[in-house]
Specification:
247 residues; Spore Coat Polysaccharide Biosynthesis Protein SpsA, Chain A; seven-stranded mixed β-sheet
Amino acid sequence: MHAANELGRVGLSFDFVQGVDQNSAEIDRAYSRLLNWTLHKRSLTRGEISVYLGHRKIWQEVMRKGMDFALVFEDDFKIRNDEQFIQAINDAISNRGIWSIVKFFDFNHKKVVETIKIGATHLVGYKYPASGAVAYLINRQAAQSLLRRRHLFRPIDEDFSHPWEFAIRVWSTSPNLVDEVSLQLGGSILESERSDLRSKRIVVRSVWGNFLQARKFLRSLWYRRARAANAPETVKTQAAADDPANL
């Protein structure tokens, strides 16, 4: 009801996509514990896998219907400013050549390394995309690339923050144009599951996680430099220290 009210208020037509139940055998088939131990700092909860599979169902609809792009929401979003949000959607659609994904919400913003203005909307590129998949635009090519991953081993937003693995370009609006309001809607089941995992933290995995984080930083740096070398003239790259969004 909350999601329907939000989208109805701004005049967007929409379809609900039924997610994947946490007790579904599909979760066990999709999740690779080996890849998770090798390439992620902690195990995933069944809820996180369920959420990821829900997003994949939407991307599959994009492919099945031959859509050029889709606007995707989790059910705990809230639009901050209706006019700015609709403007940002229209600006992104009018400039489809520069993005694979445009995120309208981020947790824990990272260091800003690129900025661009399209129409009235400011987009930023972080050293690697921040957490959160509450609301985003995704094009067909990105959906197809993400769907090529046969087994899941990270949360969805962590895969977004490894764009080099999918050859995708992820931008975020600055500031956030959408909020995550799960607490106002009764709380997050995912967060309680994550808390249980944190209480069972394994030291070896924490140490390995530090190595993975360093590797991620280096891969991100390489990817940004390779991308900058081929960037169109409309993209303005600047030092993060010069960007007010980084304060």
